[in-house]
Amino acid sequence: MSSVSDVLRQLTVVFTEFEGRLEQTPLIRKLTRGRFALADYHAFLIGLRQQVKDGALWMSRAASNVDDEHLELRSSLMRHAVTEHRDFRLLEADYVAAGGELAAIRGAEKNIGSEALSAWMFHEASKPNPFGLLGAMWIIEGLGSIKAAEWGALVRQRLDLPDHAVRFLLYHGENDVEHIKEFEEMLAMVLPDAETAARIVKSAQVTARLYALQIEEITA
Amino acid sequence: MTQLREAYITGTGVFLPGEPVPVERMEDHLGRIAGRDSLLGRRALRWNGVETRHYALAADGRATHSNAGMCAQAVRAALEAAALEPADLSFLAAATTQGDYLVPGHAANVHGELGGGPLEIASFQSVCGSSLMAAKAAWLSVRAGEHDVAVAGASEFSSRWFQPAFYEGTALVDAKGRLRAEADYLRFTLSDGAGAVVMEPAPRPQGLSLKVEFIDLVSLADRFDPCMWAGASVEGRTDPLATWAFAGPAAAHAAGAVALLQDFELLKRVIRAWVGVYLQKVDQGRIVPGQVDHLLCHYSARSLREEIVSLLEKTAGMIPEQKWFSNLASVGNIGSASIWVMLDAFLKSGRLKPSEKVLCVVPESGRAFVGFMMLEAVG
To answer: Contacts of residue A23 in chain B, CB cutoff 8 Å?
Structure first.
């Protein structure tokens, strides 16, 4: 039970469980039940920014801990980090376009979930050959390619916002197919291997739980 | 403790009202909202892949059968297929989305139409998945030794809920006479009919029977709001205290809280959740795709199937296309009755061979439910 398709199946199960957990958080309930206000959107962006900002950083650290036997994977992680490391600026611009003060989002503290998520990511990324983090990437990428566009469309509709105030959420959805394909290729670089497979799934579970905690802790 | 018995499906029966109705005549039976053709109808039909279906409403709007009456006919046909009679039946589990009465339960009215002497009954009200809820009750009652002849029946009379009077003069129709998509889509998605299966503790002496290996039912209503519902307006559907009976029937009707409605956005998330439950069964070894010889999947749209297929292929959960059997195109989506109508047609197709395994999958968008039934051909 350690081939790419076996791991993808387990990761899909983890992701659908994660989606179910997100669905029950107060913030997403507001969004899906039509009680989402501008203040919720501001709080949402502030909450997301921390992880988005850290994302490229832990990925870079992970890349620096990948050994010479896995140069292809190291390249992929580095490319990923480069692609995403400025995304938090886009998110800040959305915040300002939606009526927020730049200083407010830049000066905001991480919430309890973001603290836990960030600490976990950097801890994992600091280990030699941190292949388990592919599971974390599956969760984060899945959010970007599946959930962000859904949330973005709902936010735009509920708050009657222009596109340029919801670019971060909407823009992620457009890279869907390419991201998943790239992810499958990365899995193939470290699988089949039972221990690595188990670590990838475990890392997806932990990341999903801590990410959901981050969303749970977002309050307007 | 007494050991559990095996239980077998020894007969299936179907009742489809009237002649098959082709696409171009469907709206004649449902009636036209404010006298105008539906905007969504043709598109929904192409989407659903339905070519013909059956209605218990004649083209002049007259009802030809009741919901319970159709179920009783299917139960009779199933008993006959098992070489039994209504008098042999001792447990009737009946499923539907919306019975003829609000009260009492559907099974009581099916029994009333069926006759045949005093019976144990159980009513199951949900959407498509109510079929397997009833099947599980019938299966367990035979397994436990409570009954030697049990029937699980399911029936739908959806079309009466799609008549113009359910929408006209309500918040569901705008000033230009256009019906909201949440309502219009379902008018062209669901239709009428009934199906039933007989369960006994031994296979039939001749011919094939189906041993029921397991029936697993999973609700995810803890995380999802209602996705296909009646009894609340589009805006008020997530508040149980805003449901129809609090406002009274007239105000509820005006608010559009009586018609059957579907949330398409939520449906996309629910579909992924169904796939997650299935893949978990695969991961646990409960379902081994390579050991399934035939797949009968109840799906309400062809597109839904394609969405599921692409994800399943990547995760080694896919059961190859040539093993799928469906008669959706010719009989339409009959809600809870669909799986039995499909199983009946499958058995009559002659495809099934002894010792082959048949997996039935019934997803229900109502509030995110999915059921699985594994069968093995014996005899």
So the answer is: 223-224, 269
Q: What is the spatial distance between Cα A48 and Cα A38, in angstroms, rounded to a whole number? A: 15
Asked if B221 reaches chain A (Cβ–Cβ under 8 Å), the answer is no
A75 — contact with chain B (CB < 8 Å)?
Answer: no
What is B210-327+342-378's CATH topology? Answer: Peroxisomal Thiolase; Chain A, domain 1 (3.40.47)
- Domain B8-205 indexed as CATH 3.40.47.10: yes
Tell me whether residues A13 and B238 touch, CB distance under 8 A: no
Quick check: A135 and A200 in contact, CB under 8 A? yes
pTM (predicted TM-score): 0.94
The mean-pLDDT minimum among A13-22, A168-177, B38-47, B169-178 falls in A168-177
Name which of A6, A20, A33 is nearest B316 (Cβ-Cβ).
A6
Task: Take residue A77 and report the two structure tokens written for it.
Answer: 């992680």
CA A45/CA A94 separation, integer angstroms: 8
Query: How confident is the model at residue A26, as a pLDDT?
Result: 96
Q: What integer pLDDT is reported at residue B301 of this predicted model?
A: 46
Assigned token pair, A119: 């600490």
Contacts of B124 by beta carbon, 8 Å cutoff, 6+ apart: B93, B94, B95, B96, B106, B107, B130, B133, B134, B137
User: Under an 8 A CB cutoff, do A23 and B269 touch?
Assistant: yes
Beta-carbon separation of B311 and A23 below 8 A: no
Instruction: Write the pLDDT tens digit of every residue in B312-337.
Output: 888 999 998 899 999 999 999 999 99
Q: How confident is the model at residue B6 (pLDDT cuts 50, 70, 90)?
A: very high
Give me the architecture of the A4-216 domain, per CATH.
Up-down Bundle (1.20)
What's the distance, CA B307 to chain centroid? 20
ipTM of the complex: 0.92
Residues B276, A12: C-beta atoms closer than 8 Å = yes
Across the interface, which of B224, B235, B280 has its CB nearest the CB of A34?
Answer: B235
Q: Which of A149, A166, A158, A45 is nearest to A106 (CA)?
A: A45
**Stretches in chain A below the pLDDT threshold 50:** none
Taking the Cβ of residue B315 and every Cβ of chain A, the question of whether any pair is shorter than 8 Å is answered with: yes
Question: Does B224 contact A at CB distance below 8 Å?
Answer: yes
CB atoms within 10 A of CB B206: 8
Question: For position A12, what pLDDT does the model report?
Answer: 94
